[in-house]
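Lecture notes, part 5. Sequence design as translation. It can be helpful to think of inverse folding as translation between two languages: the language of shapes and the language of residues. The source text, in structure tokens, appears below.
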């Protein structure tokens, strides 16, 4: 099951994102497509350990429920709040959508190489705690599907 998610993240996600028109309005939320792609790059940096967190914000007594949800096929709800993000999306930092997509591609390359070189590593997610490679893949896949659905690009995506 994880191999299909790995393949999706490595080979299918970026082509799907490139098909979304730049000016497509989200079905919910305030992020533009460009902001969402930069937001997703941030998530990949968290998963690869490039961004380090000391604390896990989820209370210890709730962490197992959060992880159970994370590993399930149940999607994130629309407008799921992230306590690390402000109410208004951050301004874009890349000068173009194509550069933002290239950055996302590089972040995925780094993520997969990191875990290839550090097979027993875990990285700290500030919501879900310390995650290994497979857990990070599940979370990134779930997160990607959430944002593809947000921009109406989900039909081709399988769980």
């Amino acid at each position: 099951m994880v191999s299909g998610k790995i393949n999706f993240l490595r080979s299918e996600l970026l082509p799907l994102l490139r098909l979304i028109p730049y000016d497509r309005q989200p079905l919910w939320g305030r992020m533009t497509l460009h902001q969402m792609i930069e937001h997703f790059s941030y998530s990949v940096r968290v998963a690869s350990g490039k961004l380090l967190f000391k604390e896990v914000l989820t209370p210890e007594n709730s962490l197992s429920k959060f992880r159970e949800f994370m590993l399930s096929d149940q999607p994130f709800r629309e407008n799921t709040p992230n306590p690390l993000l402000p109410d208004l999306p951050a301004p874009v930092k890349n000068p173009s959508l194509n550069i933002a997509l290239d950055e996302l591609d590089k972040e995925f390359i780094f993520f997969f190489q990191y875990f290839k070189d550090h097979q027993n590593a875990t990285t700290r997610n500030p919501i879900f705690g310390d995650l290994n490679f497979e857990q990070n893949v599940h979370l990134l896949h779930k997160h990607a599907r959430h944002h593809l659905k947000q921009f109406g690009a989900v039909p081709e995506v399988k769980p």
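The translated text above is only one of many valid answers, since several sequences can fold into similar shapes. The longest helix spans residues 97-117.
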